Amino acid sequence: MRFGLNLRGVVGKILEQAWFMDESDGDQRLPHHRSPPEFVSLDHLADAGVLYWKLNPSDYENDEELRKIREARGYNYMDLLDLCPEKVDNYEQKLKNFYTEHIHGDEEIRYCLEGSGYFDVRDKEDRWIRIWIKPGDLIVLPAGIYHRFTLDTSNYIKLMRLFVGEPVWTAFNRPQEEHPARKQYARSLAEKVGVALAAH
């Protein structure tokens, strides 16, 4: 499945790895499905500005499609991150920080090479969508979108982090309605709604 360069290439496709979350405050590493589960389409994620590709994680160093994505989107910085209790200092505190709702001033680009975890994003109606990323999943979260991250019960993920230019990892915790990236993101959502209405 490929989604991103051709934004409507998988029209209406339902991902069994993205769903609306319930409102419970139990273990953040559990799926938190609603009852019954409500899965989310790639189109719905695209409407929130989230891009998605399915790639081959076993050959990421020579992957031509990954190279094309990086070239097309200007991702000239790359590093790898192993996230698990054994390899990260202050693991519990870092995971708590990652799970605090926030925005960034730039895109957040993550490519899962091993393990799994959850990115939660807010949609246009401010509902949480949980995206379960596994090996081969590359997602791009737009600057200004409210989001958070947690591991699942496997407690391990290996991520490639991509960036345009020098990386800036600063998180701005909600509320950030006056932040320039948040204002630009809100404008882009409003423009999408305007285009959709004009098409009717």
From TrEMBL:
Origin organism lineage: Eukaryota, Viridiplantae, Streptophyta, Embryophyta, Tracheophyta
Family the entry assigns: Belongs to the acireductone dioxygenase (ARD) family.
Cofactor: Fe(2+); Ni(2+)
Record localization: Cell membrane; Cytoplasm; Nucleus
EC number: 1.13.11.54, 1.13.11.53
Pfam families with a match to the protein in the record: ARD
Name recorded for this polypeptide: Acireductone dioxygenase
Residues engaged in binding Ni(2+): H102, H104, E108, H147
